Each structure stands twice: as C-alpha cells, then as structure tokens.
Amino acid sequence: MSAAPVNASLGGHPTYLLDRAALPGSERLAVAREGGAYRALEKALRGMKPAEVTEVVKASGLRGRGGAGFPTGLKWTFMPPPGDPRPRYFLLNADESEPGTFKDRVLLERDPHLVIEGLALASYAIGARTCYVYMRGEFRRPKRIFEAAIAEAREAGFLGKNLLGRGFDLEVVVHRGAGAYIAGEETGAMESIEGKPARPRPKPPFPAGFGLWGCPTTINNVETVANVPAIVERGSEWYRRIGTDKSPGNFLCGVSGRVNRPGVFELPLGTRVRAILEGPAGGVRGTLKAFYPGGSSTGILPAAHADVAMDHEALRAVGAMLGTGGITVLDDTACVVRASAVLARFYEHETCGQCSQCRLGCEWMRRLLDRIEGGAGRREDLDLLLDLGANMSGGKTICAFADGAAIPLVSAVRHFREEFEAHVREGRCPFPEDPGA
Ligand SMILES: Cc1cc2nc3c(=O)[nH]c(=O)nc-3n(C[C@H](O)[C@H](O)[C@H](O)COP(=O)(O)O)c2cc1C
User: Fold this and answer.
1) Nearest to 264 by CA among 25, 14, 22, 432
2) What is the rounded distance in angstroms from the CA atom of residue 408 to the CA atom of residue 173?
3) pLDDT given at position 82
4) Which of 32, 187, 343, 428 could form a cystine bridge with 375, CB 3.0-4.6 A?
5) Residue to substitute in 93, 121, 218 for testing ligand 1 pocket (most ligand atoms within 8 angstroms of CB)
6) Which residues line the pocket of ligand 1, CB cutoff 6 A?
7) Peptide bond preceding 81: is omega within 30 degrees of 0, i.e. cis?
8) What tens digit of pLDDT does each residue of 59-70 get?
9) pTM score above 0.85
10) Structural domains for the chain
C-alpha cells in the first residue's frame, strides 16, 4: 500500500486530511508541526471548554467515517454529565478490516500526528483521560509508526500529564487485535480489549453508558477524528462549505480493483463515482461492469449507476451505502457470482457465531454460491438465496454483521440475476478462470 498514490484530487476543493501525507518524513513530529500539527489542540486547550469543542463538531455536521455515518458531535453528547464518578474512555477504532478499505492505514502511517491530535481533541471534548486505540492485528508497520509518533508527542507535551500546562492529562494505549473482522464492531472491540473473544454485546446499553469495563466510552473511527483538527481550527461554517448539505466534508476514497491508478484520494463527499474513476484513479482497465461503492458490506452496483454521488443520501437512494468510502471496481471479465462466493467465504470465516441467523446464514450463503459458481446450482437456489438474505437482514441479530454479509449477496442477485441464471442454465461458470484464484 505504501507505494500507492495519495492525495491526487479533482482540483479546486480544499483539502485537510492528506495535505502532509505526501511530504517526506511526514510521520515525524517536526515535519507535521511545520505543516500545522497541534495548532487546533493548542487553540482548544487555551481557549475552549470541552462542551465548546463538542458544539463546533456538532455544528460542522461531521458524520462518522467507520461505516454507519452517525453524527459525531451528537454521539459525543451521549456521554453522561461530568458528575458521573466512573472513569470515561475514548476508543479509537483502527481495526480497518472491511474488504476494499485501506484509508485509515494511510493516515496512521503517513500522518499519525493528525490522528493523535484528533483523538486528543475528542478525548478532551468527552472528558476522557485515557484513550485506547484498537488496531488491526495485521497492522504491524502502522503500529510501529503510530507508537513512535505517540512517544514523540508525549515528549513534546501533546500527550501525558498536564497537556500544554492546561491541566488536562491524556494517556494513549495501543491494543493490537488478532486479525478478526468482527473485532471492528464497536462492542466487539471493547470485549477484545477486556481480554475476551470479540463477541459484540447486545445493545442497549450503549457504549456511552456502559462501554469499556462498564464505564462511559465514546468510539470513533480513525478518519473521523482526523477531521476534527480542521473543524476546530477553521470552524464549522468553513467545514460545511465542503461536501453536501447532509454529508459535509472531505472523505478518503480508497479505490482498488480494475483501475489504472489504485490509491487513496481526498475528495469532497458528493463526488460522483465516474469522476473518481476517470480522474484520480486514472480510468478503468477494460470496461466497467460493476463496483462496490464503500466496502463489500455496502453492496454491488452495476455500471449504469456510475454517476451516483459518493454521499450517504445518494447511495441510499440506489439501495447501497457510503460505508467506508472504498470503491472496488470490477471490469467485464469479472464474474459477479464468483466475486459473491469469495465474499461469502470471508463472511462465513469471520462470523462470531453468536446469532443463528448469522452463523447458519453465512454458511448457507457460501454453500449455495459455491454450488452455483461450480455449475451444480438449481433454478430455485436464486430465490433460496434471496430468502436467506431476508432472514439475515433487518436488525434480527446482535450486531450489523449479518446485514453486512447479506447486502452484497442480495444486491448481486438483484442487479445480476441473469448472470446467476446463466450459471444454472449452462451448468458452469461462463467466465474465464481467474488466474489469481
Ligand atoms: C462487523 C463490523 C465491523 C466493523 N469494523 C469496523 C472497523 O474496522 N473500523 C471502524 O472504524 N468501524 C468498524 N465498524 C463500525 C463500528 O461498529 C462503529 O460504528 C465505528 O467505529 C464508529 O465510529 P464512527 O462513528 O467514527 O464511524 C464495524 C461494524 C461492524 C458491524
């Protein structure tokens, strides 16, 4: 990933997430400081009460970049009022395991001080003195770089005791996961940090009331907090001028698959998929057939939807989601049934198995898709697949994993039914073998 291009833009829009990321030595404090790091933290600690930081983030309309798009400032207000005697925690979600998603990694490796400044502002706003960072098990390099940046920040007085002499203490603890997708779910991450298997907890109670060790906890994604310094420094009105009315700001768009220039690009929310593929991503290799707009759990869309805007509302209107903003591109040599079967294998492997709809649903989904792709599918298997998808969806389970596993499958059948039928009719996969499979 390190050699992939970052920060190619469409031009003409303000940037604030990857400005420092392309500089040599951007992970070092001295370089980051040159580029303005910790100015927002200084501004907040010297002149803003915690509630004022929350207020400006709320007014900015920032929405979480971890997948669900929940309003960040509003989430922060769910923490109990200051009189609550329990310690309170900020949890930074750096698990980044959604297939097709690799943007948090770029921030952690290329501008760790932006992330540290963001988590410090979030911790200050919610009154946390300890921040846990839950980091994907495979992120050995990001962890090394991030921990070196934490040490530098502590040395310089941006972390530790009495930050900038303003009486605010903050310790950061990095906890590496062991490579489970489900551990990125917020309460799964909490269980894991507590030393247990990462099985999501039933909600309510929600983390703000009962989070880590039963104490008030706010959890946000890496990219979410990376937005906060710019908001605090330049204000909510400035922020709201970027992106769309209901989805303000820039987002990090990771593009992978059949494009000439895969990479991570900082773009305003609301940018059209076609403009991204033809612009920063350097064009589709071959003919565009389909794309997953925001990670595999957001579903698959056919090329006819390439003019859709990358924002929560526009993608919802076409039955998909913005998710983590990572676009995976398929060209016309790709088999949608095979792609669905590959994903089904992933979800079957990663389900924690607590809920029967998810445990059994993922297994059956994989079996049916393998059968169809292998040429032994029956006509009635298609409706069986849709029925299975309906049983896994709609909030019947403890967490959203089952919904996320069903969406790519159901959308594939919905948009590419003819391709599934061709597999059944011909008793084989009509596409060339995938040399990489
Ligand atoms: C199965 C599953 C996996 C998830 N994995 C991640 C992840 O790797 N990183 C992340 O930030 N959020 C992940 N989430 C979303 C988190 O539960 C949570 O909503 C998010 O961290 C909140 O941050 P935000 O409000 O800043 O978006 C996952 C959710 C589910 C259901």
Assistant:
1) 22
2) 35
3) 82
4) 428
5) 93
6) 64-68, 70, 93, 95-98, 181-182, 184-186, 219-221, 224, 399-401, 404
7) no
8) 999 999 999 999
9) yes
10) 29-240 (3.40.50.11540), 250-331 (3.10.20.600), 336-426 (1.20.1440.230)
